[in-house]
Each structure stands twice: as C-alpha cells, then as structure tokens.
Specification:
By secondary structure, the chain is mainly alpha-helical. The protein contains five helices and two strands; from the N terminus they run ααααββα.
C-alpha cells in the first residue's frame, strides 16, 4: 500500500480589525486606478451612505413580521421605514400614556447582558397570521354635499 503524505498548510488567522483595514486598503488601491469621474462618483456615494448612518438601526424581528410590514408598505405605496417609524412612535405614545405595561410581557433572561426578555402572547402574534385587510384608495377630492 502506497503511503499518502498529507500536506498541512497553515491558515492565516486575521483579527477582524486587521482584515477590515486590509480590505479598505485594497478598495482604495482599486479606486485609485479608476477614472477621475468614477472616483468622484464613488466618493459621493460613500458620503451619502455615511450621512444616513445616524438614521439607520438594526433590530431582530420575526420573518413573518418583516414580511407583513413589507406587504403593508407595498399596499399603501409608502416606504417600509416610514411605516415602522409610525408604529414605533405610536407604541412610545401608548407606553408613555400608560396604555402598555411591559411588566405584563417580561420574562427572566439567562443573558448576562439583559435582565429581561419579552414573551409575546399568542393574541399579539396571531395578528401575523391574519389576512391583511385591504384599504380603499384615499379620496383625492372632497365631494360637496
């Protein structure tokens, strides 16, 4: 039987910060070779993205909730982010007005970072499985009586 030799290669393990730095350097080198107009366009895009960072947030949501928001936004023909902003503002208004008590939903957490998790009852989650009602188109002109 022929002996098989295995060649072991050492993998390079990079710290994520170092990997990001190298990636940014490579990106800058690639961009430096682009024509002037394309470099300027990329710079404008980068500035635009950076200016929107303050307006962005990331939250973990159930996929069915994300889908319902997307469908509702399409149905109402408006941006999903504005729909979610309205929903959050209404929630904060209800919370501050005492209409929502988070104690009703709190459950002890095993996480070292958080004391509590929210346990959402079926009655709230059932809204995700209900058919979305169709709203009529807005009236553009007021009819005289």
């Amino acid at each position: 039987m022929a002996e098989r030799k295995q060649k072991y290669e050492r993998r390079q393990v990079l710290d994520s910060a170092v990997a990001d730095l190298l990636s940014n350097m490579e990106q800058k080198q690639i961009e430096a070779q682009l024509p002037r107009r394309e470099r300027e366009k990329k710079a404008r895009e980068r500035i635009k993205i950076q200016s929107r960072r303050e307006q962005r947030a990331t939250y973990d949501l159930p996929p069915t909730l994300r889908q319902r928001v997307k469908e509702m936004a399409e149905q109402e023909r408006l941006p999903a982010s504005q729909l979610v902003t309205l929903a959050l503002l209404r929630f904060l208004q209800d919370y501050q007005g005492g209409k929502v008590d988070l104690a009703d939903y709190k459950q002890s957490s095993h996480s070292p970072r958080y004391d509590w998790n929210l346990s959402l009852p079926e009655e709230l989650l059932s809204v995700l499985s209900q058919k979305q009602r169709r709203r009529s188109a807005p009236k553009l002109l007021k009819e005289d009586s």
